Amino acid sequence: MKKKFLYIVTLICGLFFTTSCEDMLDTKSLSTDNLEYLCSNPTDTRKMIAHVYSFFCEDTYTSRMSTNWMQNTDVEIGFITKAQVAVADRRSVWGLDMKQFSDIKNCWDNSLKAIDFANQCIEGIENSAMYLEGNKDMKQLHGEAYCLRAYWYWLMCNFWADVPYATTPTTKDNMHNDPRTDKNIIYSQCIQDLINVEEEMMWSNDMTVEYMNREFALGFIVKLAMFRAGYSMQADGTMARCTQTGEEYTINYIDENGASQTASSADDYYKVAKAYALKLIKLKDRSLETNFKTIFDNEINGCNPANGDVLFEMGFVPNSGGDIGWCHGLSVVASSRGAGTSYTNLTPYYACSFDKQDQRLNVTCVNYRWLNDNKQGACDVWGIQPAKWCRMDMTNTTVKDKGTGINWPILRYADVLLLLAEADNEINNGPTQIAKEMLQRVRERAFIKASNKDEMVTNYINKLSNYNDFRTAIIKERAWEFGGENIRKFDLIRWNYYSNAIVNTIDWMRNVAINYQQLDEVNGELIYNKNKDIEDLGIAPRLYYNYKNGVLEFENNYFTYRNQSSSPYNTAETLKDDDIKSSNATFDGLKYINFVESLISVSNKDPETNQPYGTDENGNEIKKGIVQERVLYSWHGLTDGALITGTEDISSLRNKVTPYVFPIPTDRVISSNGVLSNDGYSIRNK
Length: 686
Known about the structure:
Blueprint lengths: L34 H4 L3 H13 L4 H7 L10 E2 L4 H4 L4 H5 L7 H25 L2 H4 L3 H25 L2 E2 L15 E2 L1 H15 L16 H16 L1 E3 L5 E3 L9 E4 L5 E4 L4 H17 L7 H9 L9 E5 L30 E2 L1 H4 L7 H6 E2 L1 E5 L2 E4 L6 E2 L21 E5 H16 L4 H14 L6 H10 L4 H16 L5 H8 L2 H19 L2 E4 L2 E4 L13 E7 L2 E4 L22 H5 L9 E4 L5 E4 L20 E4 L1 H5 L2 H4 L26 H6 L15
Antiparallel strand pairs: 1-9, 2-3, 4-5, 6-7, 8-14, 10-13, 11-12, 15-16, 16-21, 17-18, 17-19, 20-21
């Protein structure tokens, strides 16, 4: 990045400007003259801005920073084994025990390049005559440049904590060998920037949701303010809210009553979030799409409409950009629409947390994948699929495996509504009517067809009378609403709830498996007890299904217990994918796939020595339960040393910091000549 960067490369992805989502790129090489010339008119300036967007089409974003690096949480998960923790690749990232490898360097470099190019655009636009004369298109592009810079800095701060901060382009005279800057300064400055430019931007109905628009600017002010108000990793490795209140941490804004205000403390920024959420609602409110799946179907085959659920989504072109449906989304082994295997799955703890009448459940979580155009295969507990996007729903049959063109949601209106509810609860130490109304709007859509809608919406919200209950409800609601959209990790960080979420997930998986596998804890071991009663926890140990015409029809759901020793479940069989793919048979008869029972395996032999455990004093064969490695090691950065067999009490981990911060690439630390280091920040592998 340490060079003058004053040129446009051939753009690598398609971006859109019309509401019909037509590809508008002109990929002719631009002049390498000065910035004032390059940003002298809307046509050339659009090409400059398009290059900043093009960094979203690199693997560093599509397959890393937006998808595969947003794990492991209580929602999104990439299960790993003990051996995989030690490997320096995406799996060590999932296990929160990340090590130095090339992807980290590439993401660091590309993020800074995107920021530097945004800085070039800002400088060029602000010196252009057309912008200074008030040209509306130039003002829009000016706002986009600030939004893009803010978004990339937000990503960097969430992955690397405090990062170098620059608001001017790199030049031969200023190579920007900058030290780490407190992320709270960066958040504050980015918020002020967006406050300053949002009024000059266009609404989505004047352009598209595939460009950063005024709705996004307002909504992103809300999100940034919540991060500025929340917790983050400090240089000493602790989690804390910002306590600084100096000039660099202060912004000026107009509140919802039209009064001039100053925000300086962390608590002040909850008020900023509330003010700009209310401003967006006042100026550009919209109803939520009643069919939840429609949001994602729109992204699969085009884009979401203006004034809809999505404020901004990353616009991709088939065969040119986007990895949704390739490495994220419902898996497809082979089909006429290409193939893709999701690296992201969802935890059973999360899937079973839904109410069965919540329409978001079946849109978000499924236990099957497509084997080919006409056949599905069942997925066990390790393969709960994020089903919002699937390449099988594409109308385009000429798409390559990678580069699906499926759009990716960056900010949805429901996000802003829930952030407003959360901010109001924080400001008032409990929810006011505004907070409850915002939560109700989101839940109304979720339970629009529920037979017990009043109970799940109105009565549910009325019971949330105090700060803690409402905060807990927001934590849960954001999980249900945004599962698979990969914002959970950053939410957990700003809430300082990451470690709690991990412990909750592990404890739940262990306890439900112990129950359904009839195990007793004896001296640190799990011993099978055939006489132990199984409690119906409202969770399915197995999922039963019939296989008809290549499609799975599930006989029970996540919440329905079936006694596997009774008919017809005692004769149900498993069905392997290879059998399905190699035969045209109908496979009559009830089938099953292991679900929560397989979180712990039960055997009469020691898995290390393969020797029988023997018999007990009554002559009964001894069987023991072994917690699966994927439960023990998938959050290894936090659980290392505390979770060995799976029987340990890990409640103390709730007070331990989850090590989520990435190391700065070694090459960049060395080339900084002592300016940068990986000291502190709870970084495990420097």
